[in-house]
Write a structure and sequence with these properties.
By secondary structure, the protein is mainly beta. It contains 1 helix and 16 strands. The chain folds into 3 domains: 101 residues; 65 residues, Alpha-Beta Complex (Type Iii Antifreeze Protein Isoform Hplc 12); 59 residues, SH3 type barrels (Roll). It is elongated.
Length: 230
């Protein structure tokens, strides 16, 4: 079996019969396209599949069995990828077809230029549809996630917000007075306390109840109070 490189495609095949029928190159591309479509059939996100062109000099014997497609080791089902298309007939061959799978989803982009350290609110961002398969460093899609967060670095208008740009604002600092909130049955109880550590929104922090002198743990909320589960 020989290894052939033609254009952007790679094939392995037995010596081909110059007089026999040829495999349609479009049928090979269609096999790769249908395979990728099935791989990305789940979920509500829209996809766009672009199968690379094949070198017209390829002369492959028509396969007497249905073509089979697969992902080679290390290849993914989205972004820039490669699909293997195999003929397992009496005159077998194997072709690697380049392809791109774009996946479109909702992402947050800056509504205006934001400076480093800015305290973020949902109105700082616009929800936009982008090719998320090209966002290798990730993205943020939930507007509520930015509330109470600060920026680690500047963000220009129209730029995509990525997760590692976000940093929780230290609403609670060690030694400062805080309001402790607890729900007991149908009642909401508020008492004063003092923080024993630093905490951003959503983080757990230890606090001391000023009335009972008891040390408890709670979650920092957006207004800087500490909610204690009961």
């Amino acid at each position: 079996m020989a290894l052939l490189l033609l254009g952007s495609a790679c094939i392995t095949a037995h010596a081909q019969d110059d007089t026999g029928p040829r495999q349609s190159l479009e049928s090979i591309r269609a096999t790769a396209r249908n395979f990728l479509a099935n791989q990305n059939a789940t979920g509500p996100r829209r996809t766009r599949i672009i199968v690379g062109s094949l070198d017209p000099r390829l002369r492959l014997t028509a396969c007497n069995r249905p073509l089979r497609a697969f992902l080679p080791p290390g290849a993914g089902s989205i972004g820039e990828t490669t699909v293997g298309v195999r003929c397992a007939g009496t005159r077998p061959w194997l072709l690697y077809v380049p392809a791109t799978v774009q996946v479109f989803g909702k992402v947050l982009i800056a509504a205006r230029t934001l400076v480093r350290g800015a305290l973020l609110v949902p109105t700082d961002f616009i929800v936009s549809k982008r090719d998320v398969s090209s966002l290798a460093t990730g993205y943020v899609s939930d507007l509520q996630r930015v509330t109470g967060q600060t920026l680690r670095q500047p963000l220009t208008a129209g730029a995509v917000l990525i997760p590692n740009m976000l940093q929780g604002q230290q609403l609670v600092r060690r030694g400062m007075p805080v309001t402790i909130i607890a729900r007991i049955g149908g009642l909401i109880v508020r008492v004063q306390g003092r923080a024993l550590g630093n905490g951003a929104v959503g983080q757990w922090v230890r606090v001391r109840n000023s009335m009972s002198n008891k040390v408890i743990e709670g979650v920092v909320t957006h207004d800087g109070s500490v909610r204690v589960p009961m």
